[in-house]
């Protein structure tokens, strides 16, 4: 019996599958599986030191662009090579990052999701405090005390890797092709204090409840990331690329706004503010979102219908006595006020041919004094409307309507608007009853957006007030220069943002 048993055991050994011997590189990445791999102790023992840290080239690092592999274009498990700045997927034996490491002798990589550093092809984690500045550039974090000191007068300038000095918040935005109409709006909003302070703290909007499948919330996250980079005091360079932000804009606007085609800043501003308000779960209440708290005002609109001009006086009087032609009142909210420029003169004599028409800002604001009437025409009816502002917001946005679309082409009104940079008193257009409800009515200019050139081929630039230095800057994409406030009033202003002056200064 014994020989038979030995023969049976021998046959079982021959039919049993071979035992697979695992190697360290066969263990899946922690980021790829979501689980901590076994036998990782040998890796962590070696993670404290890395001989390749001096190969990191901070001048080539740019984390503003979309986080996808430069070879496979995937967004999953992407690493940045800290030697050349390119993005690659994975770090296992057959991944693009591994291949790049072996082929180019580039060894230090950063996982763009977990913010962990690794050395390839040895595949061990690097733990070194000297790399914290790279992590901060990728994902700047602001504490409450940091935000409170952003506008302090004693705030010092920051320095880039190449030694260039810059003021946080006053950095250029890259123009990818034709996105200057977006850049000026993003720059202007970054200096509206409630908007800036809200989005610099990621926790303010990280836990907002959203319906299932609401991927449009990416727009809020991208705007927060952009503001944190604009105000980052430890940037490697003195400019930021809004690439990821603009990609979110193109996607969630269904290509209404693009980076390859010039657009209108006021259309983008209106869409952007409404989109942020909606994604922050805001409603019609004034305090439901940071957008409404900053910009939402209220007004009453009085509308009366005009009788047709071809009727005689008796017929007109009969129509005016009917209910249809009585003045109707409605309450409305607004995020910005549209100011109408007077028509430019059609004929100018030889002595005045070089004179540019001008108008005072208060003449434009008279539209909202509850007395002035403006005629509006539809395809069959004419109406007279007057506007009464009942509640002023903390920040007033003025849209100076310069473009008029005719049947054949787009016309631009070049009239210069004369406006003071400080102490603009909006109380002058309020009724006595509404003025009593406002303790302060004086506003200071904080942002001014200008259009230059022809209607269809012009460019946009903006003027920003840096409160920490009380210095005005002109920004046109990557170009940032200081400017005197007197020069701002000579430009063709298109959009202006005024901040309420909550003190008794003259």
Automatic annotation (TrEMBL):
Its main location: nucleus. PROSITE patterns: USP_3, ZF_UBP. Residues 48-145 form the UBP-type domain. Signal peptide: none annotated. One of its GO terms (biological process) is cell division. The keyword rRNA-binding does not apply. InterPro entries: Papain-like_cys_pep_sf (IPR038765), Peptidase_C19_UCH (IPR001394), Ub_carboxyl-term_hydrolase (IPR050185), USP (IPR028889), USP39 (IPR033809), Znf_RING/FYVE/PHD (IPR013083), Znf_UBP (IPR001607). It holds the Pfam family UCH. This is Ubiquitin carboxyl-terminal hydrolase 39. It comes from Anopheles atroparvus. The lineage of its organism: Eukaryota, Metazoa, Ecdysozoa, Arthropoda, Hexapoda.
